Amino acid sequence: MAAPGRTAGAVLLLLRISLVAAYPSGRVTESCGDMVPRHGHTPRPDPVHNVTVARTTFTPGDRIEVAVLGPEFKGFLIEARDAEDPSGAPVGSFTLIDSQASQLLTCGDKQGSAVSHTNAHRKTDIRVYWDAPTSAPNHVQFLATVVEKYKSYWVKIPSPVISQPKAPPFSTPAATPAPSPASPAVSRLPKPFSASGCGSRKFCVRSPSACDPAAERTCVFLSVTRDDQSVTVEMSGPSKGYLSFALSHDRWMGDDDAYLCIHEDQTVSIRPAHLTGRSHPALDSWDTLEGMAWRLEDGGMQCSFRRNITLPGVKNRFDLNTSYYIFLATGAAKDGQIYRHSQQPLITYEKHDVTGDPQDVGASQAPPLLRAHGALMLVCWMTTVSVGVIVARFFKPVLSRPLFGEAAWFQVHRALMLITSLLTCIAFVLPFIYRGGWSSRAGYHPYLGCVVLILAVLQPLLAALRPPLHDPRRHLFNWTHWGMGTAARIVAVAAMFLGMDLPGLALPGPWKTYAMLGFVAWHVGAEILLEVHTYRLSRKVEILDDTRIQIMQPFTMAEAEGHGFKKAVLAVYVCGNVTFLIIFLSAVSRL
């Protein structure tokens, strides 16, 4: 396949709604010739809309108003054709009346030779002008395709014929029915699929690993069983919308051979498709598939089909006796229209030949580089930074003994912060290596990541320029160092919140949000506790005399009384941070 807020980066099926839903912008030039929406459904036979013309005669250079009227509809395509050759090339060009509702298309290399919608808003009246060319045929007829909804549309609704004044009488040609996909025979599966035989008799991909579709309706499952010169494919998963798998030459979307099982009403539609770039999958003919069957039960959907291993001369179908990356995806569907999946598809770790020796292989929703990115950032900003800040702020008297020529607290703080800067730099470059550049689909996450990186690099550089203890500039350094560090931690937490929901590393379930909020509350609570403890100790060193009360610095002998308490707090705090870290790392490792 060809290449955050996405997903998933590299995604299998970047699904939108077709013509109106998949092409809400109306850029439907692929339908210019036959005027048939690429929805994979049969056009309705009896039009309920009318195509009208302002007059029935014209001369070259005339401008004639054409209108499509009727019950509410979402999409349309209007063309002018030679009435004696309605399957021929478009005739003349159009001029828009309402550019908010309609737009010009280029069909057959003729600019402005067709008109379509600009959005999926409901409409009942569309009007445009047709400009008659100098080489216009004797008789012209306007054809309109009108889409009411995804599964309901009419193709080539005709207008009255308009003719040149001296043209011979028009004779109606034999009607040519609009092409429609033939419906193949589809049966119901008598019993659910089973994982029995995976790795011994059939090639399998499944998630969670070792799940069995016979017992778990949420098990996302694919099996391929070879039978001489053909294979039988089985897919199983949740019935909320659609299941799909694709064969790809790489780990990126584009130029792929895909197969979809779409839950429609109380049935399942099984369709081959192909993908070109990061676009809506184009549904193909059923001709290459045989023995199609499906099953819906207890929230689960299963479908199967058979196809030949090689299909010479068939466009968009791959030969199966070659190794490919395998993608498995699920997503929402309604009334037969498929929507973009919200999570990264499962992708095998390496290429596999599904017709070779049977295997039971693993797959992951998160590419290894993105998982490493997430893990390193979690280590940095959930443990090393938090512990380093706590130690520098509250544990100077507790860890005041020298260690390699400096106070122990300073050595611990410096080591943890240098580790943070180093790991942040490493983690920062991993998504760029994976994506091959900047991702425009990741929302604010990469921008916040850039801010975090800049601050993480500036902090040790600023620390290297730290003035001596009694230097007048030391006060300015302290505030700057504290401000930049605090800003980095706040931005890092925001970036982690956003990163958890990106398709490339979409941690499942709402628990992740609560766990991250718990971590923030844990850290803030620890700082408040230590601040209160430090303040209470400072009150014990008040020196009273007859005329005044002098408040001395908090780092005194009196604070030594609280060293045991602080050590206990530090131990519990570190254990808590590590616990939160393990929770998130275990979730990342299971993706």
From TrEMBL:
Transmembrane segments: 374-395, 415-434, 446-465, 486-507, 568-588
Membrane topology: Multi-pass membrane protein
Domain Reelin intervals: 13-179
SMART domains linked to this entry: B561, DoH
Protein origin, superkingdom: Eukaryota
Region (Disordered) residue spans: 165-188
InterPro entries documented for this protein: Cyt_b561/ferric_Rdtase_TM (IPR006593), DOMON_domain (IPR005018), Ferric-chelate_Red/DefProt (IPR051237), Reeler_dom (IPR002861), Reeler_sf (IPR042307)
GO CC annotations, alphabetized: membrane
Bias type Pro residues, positions: 166-182
Keyword Membrane: yes
BP terms from Gene Ontology: intracellular iron ion homeostasis
Keyword field contains Glycoprotein: yes
Annotated localization: Membrane
Signal peptide stretch: 1-22
Keywords per UniProt: Electron transport, Glycoprotein, Iron, Membrane, Signal, Transmembrane, Transmembrane helix, Transport
Known function: Ferric-chelate reductases reduce Fe(3+) to Fe(2+) before its transport from the endosome to the cytoplasm.
Family membership: Belongs to the FRRS1 family.
Protein name: Ferric-chelate reductase 1
